[in-house]
Amino acid sequence: MEKDIESEKPKAIKETKGTLIADMYYMVEDWMRPSPKRPKFLQVILFIIKLPALVVLLAVSPILLLFMFITLIVAL
């Protein structure tokens, strides 16, 4: 019985990490999406204010880091 419980722990941890990453992604997506309740002018101003945070998130994106690494290897 104890072996069954031990074998299921990594699976539960892996699912938790997956949902945590998905929740973080959706939180950022909702944060960047403009609210239809606000006037268009305010939506534009808020987007301009949020733009540096979006650039930082994209800069540390694993896909972008992988692309930059491949570019470095090809350049050498």
UniProtKB/TrEMBL annotation:
Segments crossing the lipid bilayer: 41-74
Keyword field: Membrane, Transmembrane, Transmembrane helix
Name of protein: Uncharacterized protein
Originating species: Gelidibacter algens
